[in-house]
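Sequence, please.
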Protein backbone atom coordinates (compact mmCIF):
# COMPACT_ATOMS: atom_id res chain seq x y z
CA UNK A 1 0.00 0.00 0.00
CA UNK A 2 1.40 3.36 -1.03
CA UNK A 3 1.67 5.73 1.91
CA UNK A 4 -0.03 9.18 1.75
CA UNK A 5 3.23 11.12 1.42
CA UNK A 6 4.28 8.94 -1.54
CA UNK A 7 1.15 9.49 -3.65
CA UNK A 8 1.15 11.67 -6.75
CA UNK A 9 -2.51 12.62 -6.34
CA UNK A 10 -3.80 9.93 -8.72
CA UNK A 11 -5.28 7.03 -6.80
CA UNK A 12 -6.38 3.49 -7.48
CA UNK A 13 -10.08 3.39 -6.58
CA UNK A 14 -12.17 0.47 -5.37
CA UNK A 15 -15.94 0.83 -5.07
CA UNK A 16 -18.10 -1.24 -2.74
CA UNK A 17 -21.68 -1.06 -3.98
CA UNK A 18 -22.98 -0.77 -7.54
CA UNK A 19 -26.28 0.90 -6.80
CA UNK A 20 -27.20 4.30 -8.19
CA UNK A 21 -24.31 6.15 -6.51
CA UNK A 22 -21.11 4.07 -6.57
CA UNK A 23 -20.61 3.59 -10.32
CA UNK A 24 -21.43 7.24 -11.02
CA UNK A 25 -18.78 8.41 -8.56
CA UNK A 26 -16.40 5.99 -10.22
CA UNK A 27 -17.01 7.58 -13.61
CA UNK A 28 -16.47 11.06 -12.16
CA UNK A 29 -13.24 10.09 -10.41
CA UNK A 30 -11.96 8.34 -13.53
CA UNK A 31 -12.64 11.55 -15.43
CA UNK A 32 -10.44 13.36 -12.89
CA UNK A 33 -7.55 11.01 -13.63
CA UNK A 34 -7.94 8.36 -10.94
CA UNK A 35 -7.94 4.64 -11.82
CA UNK A 36 -11.03 2.64 -10.91
CA UNK A 37 -9.59 -0.83 -10.44
CA UNK A 38 -12.48 -2.80 -8.94
CA UNK A 39 -16.12 -2.71 -7.89
CA UNK A 40 -18.40 -5.04 -5.96
CA UNK A 41 -21.94 -5.84 -7.14
CA UNK A 42 -24.45 -8.36 -5.86
CA UNK A 43 -27.64 -8.24 -7.93
CA UNK A 44 -27.93 -8.71 -11.67
CA UNK A 45 -29.07 -5.10 -12.09
CA UNK A 46 -26.10 -3.76 -10.14
CA UNK A 47 -23.70 -5.87 -12.19
CA UNK A 48 -25.27 -4.56 -15.39
CA UNK A 49 -24.94 -0.99 -14.10
CA UNK A 50 -21.29 -1.56 -13.17
CA UNK A 51 -20.47 -2.97 -16.60
CA UNK A 52 -22.38 -0.20 -18.39
CA UNK A 53 -20.80 2.73 -16.55
CA UNK A 54 -17.39 1.22 -15.82
CA UNK A 55 -16.67 -1.15 -18.71
CA UNK A 56 -13.62 -3.30 -18.18
CA UNK A 57 -13.50 -2.73 -14.41
CA UNK A 58 -13.41 -6.12 -12.64
CA UNK A 59 -16.38 -7.01 -10.42
CA UNK A 60 -14.83 -8.56 -7.30
CA UNK A 61 -15.98 -9.59 -3.86
CA UNK A 62 -15.83 -6.95 -1.13
CA UNK A 63 -12.60 -8.12 0.50
CA UNK A 64 -10.74 -8.18 -2.81
CA UNK A 65 -11.99 -4.69 -3.64
CA UNK A 66 -10.53 -3.39 -0.37
CA UNK A 67 -7.25 -5.17 -1.01
CA UNK A 68 -6.97 -3.76 -4.54
CA UNK A 69 -7.08 0.00 -4.04
CA UNK A 70 -5.74 3.04 -2.22
CA UNK A 71 -9.13 4.82 -2.12
CA UNK A 72 -12.19 2.81 -1.13
CA UNK A 73 -15.69 4.21 -1.76
CA UNK A 74 -18.40 2.69 0.44
CA UNK A 75 -21.59 3.37 -1.51
CA UNK A 76 -23.95 1.11 0.41
CA UNK A 77 -27.30 1.64 2.18
CA UNK A 78 -27.13 3.35 5.57
CA UNK A 79 -28.36 0.22 7.34
CA UNK A 80 -25.47 -1.84 5.95
CA UNK A 81 -22.62 0.60 6.53
CA UNK A 82 -21.77 -0.01 10.18
CA UNK A 83 -21.71 -3.81 9.91
CA UNK A 84 -19.70 -3.66 6.69
CA UNK A 85 -16.98 -1.50 8.25
CA UNK A 86 -16.85 -3.62 11.40
CA UNK A 87 -16.80 -6.89 9.47
CA UNK A 88 -13.86 -5.82 7.34
CA UNK A 89 -12.03 -4.74 10.49
CA UNK A 90 -12.72 -8.08 12.17
CA UNK A 91 -11.08 -9.87 9.23
CA UNK A 92 -8.11 -7.45 9.20
CA UNK A 93 -8.93 -6.42 5.65
CA UNK A 94 -8.44 -2.66 6.01
CA UNK A 95 -4.94 -1.42 5.18
CA UNK A 96 -3.01 1.33 6.98
CA UNK A 97 -2.83 4.54 4.95
CA UNK A 98 -5.85 3.62 2.85
CA UNK A 99 -8.41 6.39 2.26
CA UNK A 100 -11.91 5.16 3.12
CA UNK A 101 -14.88 7.26 2.01
CA UNK A 102 -18.53 6.56 2.71
CA UNK A 103 -21.43 8.30 0.97
CA UNK A 104 -24.15 8.22 3.65
CA UNK A 105 -25.74 11.57 4.59
CA UNK A 106 -26.60 10.28 8.07
CA UNK A 107 -23.13 9.39 9.34
CA UNK A 108 -19.94 11.31 9.88
CA UNK A 109 -16.62 9.56 10.42
CA UNK A 110 -17.50 7.86 13.72
CA UNK A 111 -19.05 4.97 11.81
CA UNK A 112 -15.57 4.32 10.35
CA UNK A 113 -14.00 3.92 13.83
CA UNK A 114 -13.14 0.20 13.42
CA UNK A 115 -11.29 1.01 10.19
CA UNK A 116 -9.64 4.07 11.74
CA UNK A 117 -8.27 1.83 14.49
CA UNK A 118 -6.42 -0.03 11.72
CA UNK A 119 -4.85 3.15 10.35
CA UNK A 120 -7.17 4.20 7.51
CA UNK A 121 -7.85 7.82 6.58
CA UNK A 122 -11.60 8.45 7.17
CA UNK A 123 -13.81 10.75 5.08
CA UNK A 124 -17.58 11.09 4.74
CA UNK A 125 -18.76 12.51 1.39
CA UNK A 126 -22.41 12.93 0.48
CA UNK A 127 -23.41 14.42 -2.88
CA UNK A 128 -26.58 16.43 -2.21
CA UNK A 129 -28.53 15.26 -5.24
CA UNK A 130 -30.88 12.49 -6.33
CA UNK A 131 -29.16 9.80 -8.38
CA UNK A 132 -30.57 7.86 -11.32
CA UNK A 133 -27.60 5.50 -11.66
CA UNK A 134 -26.89 6.67 -15.21
CA UNK A 135 -24.32 8.90 -16.92
CA UNK A 136 -26.77 11.81 -16.56
CA UNK A 137 -25.73 11.99 -12.89
CA UNK A 138 -22.12 12.76 -13.81
CA UNK A 139 -23.24 16.00 -15.44
CA UNK A 140 -25.62 16.82 -12.58
CA UNK A 141 -22.73 16.63 -10.12
CA UNK A 142 -21.34 19.83 -11.62
CA UNK A 143 -24.35 21.74 -10.23
CA UNK A 144 -24.27 20.04 -6.84
CA UNK A 145 -22.67 20.31 -3.43
CA UNK A 146 -20.90 17.49 -1.60
CA UNK A 147 -21.08 17.41 2.21
CA UNK A 148 -17.59 16.71 3.57
CA UNK A 149 -16.91 15.46 7.10
CA UNK A 150 -13.37 14.51 8.09
CA UNK A 151 -10.72 15.13 10.76
CA UNK A 152 -9.26 18.61 10.35
CA UNK A 153 -5.92 17.42 8.88
CA UNK A 154 -7.81 15.33 6.32
CA UNK A 155 -10.37 17.95 5.26
CA UNK A 156 -8.29 19.13 2.28
CA UNK A 157 -8.34 15.59 0.87
CA UNK A 158 -12.12 15.39 1.24
CA UNK A 159 -12.61 18.81 -0.31
CA UNK A 160 -10.30 17.94 -3.19
CA UNK A 161 -12.25 14.74 -3.87
CA UNK A 162 -15.50 16.72 -3.92
CA UNK A 163 -14.02 19.13 -6.46
CA UNK A 164 -12.73 16.23 -8.56
CA UNK A 165 -16.26 14.84 -8.61
CA UNK A 166 -17.19 18.13 -10.27
CA UNK A 167 -19.07 19.49 -7.25
CA UNK A 168 -18.64 22.18 -4.59
CA UNK A 169 -17.47 20.97 -1.16
CA UNK A 170 -19.61 21.86 1.87
CA UNK A 171 -17.88 21.14 5.18
CA UNK A 172 -20.30 19.66 7.74
CA UNK A 173 -18.88 19.03 11.25
CA UNK A 174 -19.46 15.63 12.81
CA UNK A 175 -21.97 16.95 15.35
CA UNK A 176 -24.07 18.54 12.57
CA UNK A 177 -24.22 15.48 10.33
CA UNK A 178 -27.57 14.20 11.68
CA UNK A 179 -29.20 17.61 11.16
CA UNK A 180 -27.79 17.74 7.63
CA UNK A 181 -29.25 14.30 6.91
CA UNK A 182 -32.65 15.44 8.20
CA UNK A 183 -32.61 18.44 5.87
CA UNK A 184 -31.69 16.25 2.89
CA UNK A 185 -34.38 13.69 3.69
CA UNK A 186 -37.03 16.38 4.19
CA UNK A 187 -36.31 17.99 0.83
CA UNK A 188 -36.14 14.66 -1.03
CA UNK A 189 -39.25 13.10 0.46
CA UNK A 190 -41.33 16.27 0.19
CA UNK A 191 -40.35 16.75 -3.44
CA UNK A 192 -41.19 13.18 -4.37
CA UNK A 193 -44.56 13.30 -2.59
CA UNK A 194 -45.60 16.59 -4.17
CA UNK A 195 -44.59 15.51 -7.68
CA UNK A 196 -46.46 12.21 -7.30
CA UNK A 197 -49.60 13.97 -6.07
CA UNK A 198 -49.55 16.62 -8.79
CA UNK A 199 -48.88 14.20 -11.64
CA UNK A 200 -51.62 11.94 -10.34
CA UNK A 201 -54.17 14.76 -10.41
CA UNK A 202 -53.21 15.79 -13.96
CA UNK A 203 -53.33 12.18 -15.14
CA UNK A 204 -56.83 11.81 -13.65
CA UNK A 205 -58.10 14.76 -15.71
CA UNK A 206 -56.63 13.34 -18.89
CA UNK A 207 -53.35 15.25 -19.24
CA UNK A 208 -50.86 13.23 -21.29
CA UNK A 209 -47.31 13.14 -19.91
CA UNK A 210 -47.96 15.57 -17.04
CA UNK A 211 -44.25 15.80 -16.28
CA UNK A 212 -43.87 18.13 -19.27
CA UNK A 213 -46.30 20.54 -17.63
CA UNK A 214 -44.91 20.29 -14.12
CA UNK A 215 -41.15 20.30 -14.76
CA UNK A 216 -40.72 24.04 -15.52
CA UNK A 217 -43.26 24.94 -12.84
CA UNK A 218 -41.51 22.93 -10.14
CA UNK A 219 -38.04 24.20 -11.09
CA UNK A 220 -39.18 27.85 -11.08
CA UNK A 221 -41.12 27.38 -7.83
CA UNK A 222 -38.08 25.92 -6.09
CA UNK A 223 -35.83 28.68 -7.44
CA UNK A 224 -38.28 31.32 -6.22
CA UNK A 225 -38.59 29.71 -2.80
CA UNK A 226 -34.82 29.62 -2.39
CA UNK A 227 -34.52 33.22 -3.52
CA UNK A 228 -37.01 34.29 -0.85
CA UNK A 229 -34.78 32.62 1.74
CA UNK A 230 -31.86 34.72 0.50
CA UNK A 231 -30.08 31.50 -0.44
CA UNK A 232 -27.19 31.45 -2.87
CA UNK A 233 -24.35 29.00 -3.61
CA UNK A 234 -21.97 30.64 -1.17
CA UNK A 235 -22.29 28.50 1.99
CA UNK A 236 -19.10 26.50 2.19
CA UNK A 237 -19.03 25.65 5.90
CA UNK A 238 -21.63 24.90 8.57
CA UNK A 239 -20.24 26.18 11.84
CA UNK A 240 -20.80 24.33 15.08
CA UNK A 241 -23.03 27.20 16.30
CA UNK A 242 -25.03 27.44 13.05
CA UNK A 243 -28.54 25.99 12.77
CA UNK A 244 -29.40 24.16 9.56
CA UNK A 245 -33.01 25.32 9.86
Amino acid sequence: MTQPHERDGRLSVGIIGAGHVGPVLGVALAGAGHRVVSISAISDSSRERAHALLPGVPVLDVARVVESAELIILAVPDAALESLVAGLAATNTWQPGQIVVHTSPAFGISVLAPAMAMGVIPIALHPAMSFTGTSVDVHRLTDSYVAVTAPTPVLPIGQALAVELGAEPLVVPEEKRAAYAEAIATASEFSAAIVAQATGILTDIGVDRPGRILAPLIRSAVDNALAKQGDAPRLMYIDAEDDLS
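Strands lie at 12-16, 35-40, 71-74, 99-102, 121-127, 145-149, 168-171.
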